[in-house]
Design a protein that fits this description.
By secondary structure, the chain is mainly beta. It has one helix at 5-10; strands spanning 22-29, 40-46, 52-58, 66-71, 76-81, 90-96, 103-109, 117-122, 129-133, 138-144, 150-157, 167-169, 176-179, 184-189, 195-201, 209-215, 218-223, 228-234, 240-247, 251-256, 262-267, 273-279, 284-291, 296-301, 306-309, 322-326, 334-340, 347-361, 364-374, 378-379, 386-391, 399-408, 417-419, 422-427. The strands form 8 sheets. Strands 25, 28, 29, 30, 32, 33 and 34 form a 7-stranded antiparallel β-sheet that branches. A 4-stranded antiparallel β-sheet has the order 3-2-1-24, with no helix packed on it. Strands 4-5-6-7 form a 4-stranded antiparallel β-sheet, with no helix packed on it. β9 and β10 form a beta hairpin.
Amino acid sequence: MTTPLPRLFLGAILAASASTQTFQVVMCETPPGSGGFQPIERFLIAGTNGPLTRISDIPPAVTNDPVALAFDNQYELFVSNRAAHSGNGSVSRFRFDTSFGTFSSNGSITGNGLTDPVQLAFNPVDGELFVTNWTGGQLSRFLFDAGGNAVPNGTIAMPGGGNQLGVAIRALDQQLFVSSYTAVRRFRRNANGSYTHLADFGVAGGSLIHFMAFRGDELYVAEYQSGRVYRFRFDATGAPVANGFAAVPNAIAVAFSPDRNEMFVARHSIGGCQRLLYQPATDSWLATTLQPSPSAGGIATSVHWFSIYGQGCAGAGALTPTLQGLGVPQPGNTINLRVQRGQPGALGTIVLAMAPGNTPILGCTWLQSQVLGNTDLFALDGTGAFTLPIPMPLTLLPLDVWFQAFLLDAGAPNGLFSATAGLRASVL
């Protein structure tokens, strides 16, 4: 048995407000029809509704007609390339440093039905990547191995074929949503990981539905023709319920600030990124400033529930274990901490702290301070992995917490243990 870490969250100290967190917005320059070589624009935002600073683009030479993008939860950006509708679509990968300032190319993903990819999204629970393909009627799925390599996980056939544009996954029940121009297809996730089509739903006054995103447990759907971002909540059965809209001309894609109180809407054809602020008294959005740009496509923010910091400590065979966070750390959800790349059968523990640290210990670095507790010893499975589910309390203030895992390893250089890098979890 392991120590019930969720109880420790309740006594945690309130961290700096997410509204003051500097974050990055990335947006594709995507011309109507097809394109050639377009950059991906990048901006720094000094907190919700804060000043915007344009920073260096991701240059066009390292993509191929980029149309949409998404951050995973470990400092990596994935970009779908429609390749001017030539059938040679791919997903480019870019690795950012821990400040999201500098980046480097990290290869690309091809195959498994990628032909004319459009929006892509990560399952917030297990990290699986879903990519729509404009033609062909197949949605592509990818898992990732311990080395971070994309592994094809089959495809999902769209009922009646037809175009695909947007994709989003609901964390609470794993429902999958895939948009065509005229409707949003709704799929149920089955116990074996497959998906079953349930029904379609549309939006009022529009027939050019594009990209989608979740804000908490509310689905936002960008509709280009009507110039609206439609909102959907969910009833007790998981069915979507319309909840109004925010008007933004030529809306094609949407993203949110870390505290979810600012919305960024990319505008196709006419260009620009519209910023809007949430008005809690009226449950509505107020347009603020417009950042000019050429015709826009996908948009994303560097909002990371989990982020890696520091360096791990190698064990036997020079293998450094890793600690990954999966899920959305919000009140009432369940997250998973996953240890990988350890020695099969090795015993370990995960330590929880309220602050990062930098303490040398037997040739390794303990990356925590203000420790709150740790799990009992657990055993890695035959692949050298272990997953710890953590139900989050229903009432929880915004905070940051820091994890690090330690594994008993007689073959390590220090003869005693190996350690992962640190893992910061941000509850927003």
